[in-house]
TrEMBL record:
Matching SUPFAM superfamilies: Metalloproteases ('zincins'), catalytic domain
Protein name according to UniProt: Aminopeptidase N
Organism: Geodermatophilus africanus
Domain Peptidase M1 membrane alanine aminopeptidase: 64-207
Entry keywords, A to Z: Hydrolase, Metal-binding, Metalloprotease, Protease, Zinc
Amino acid sequence: MERDLTAADRATTEASLALQPQMIDFFVALYGPYPFSSFGAIVDDDSVEYALETQTRPVYSGVASESTVAHELAHQWVGNSVSPETWRDIWLNEGFATYSEWMWAESRGGPTAQQRFEEVHATPAEDPFWAVPPGDPGPADLFAPAVYDRSAAALHALRGEVGEEPFRTLLRRWVTENAGGNVSGADLVALAEEVSGQDLGAFVTTWIDTPGKPVSW
């Protein structure tokens, strides 16, 4: 880290990056073996304020918070090893990485995934957030907040819909069976239905494919 960070920002970044081995252990328990042979990070010296899930070496613009490091590290499984088939499937990348971030925070004594879900779902129905369907956000909204947070909320709702054990099975099979490949939203639905024995068509239509705030599913 060569950038002239404040002492507080440098301490935050160093503390966050020091947690990477623990994060890897946590995500291994969720998704299966780490998919690559090394890991690390690059802290850039620009002022763009971004993070990018570069394979094995995520890039951070200056300060790297713990939640951001967890998000980008989760992308090694969901995004880099298992990649979207088309850009409209980007919600699979960002939804899983955001939900991984929520689960990591809960494991550390932070807000629970349920609390994070409730925060998202408390967004008023008239808010533009709900106008973007994650399953087809369009070029202008590929990285809109809904692609991250609504998708993560959808995964949490799915967890409640299918039950804890099937959901955990889904996470692991999704990554291990698709490692090194490309996937679509339809692939996830098919696997979720296989694992749970449920018809999830209406659920997916409500949470992923349709603009508007889900009120029942």
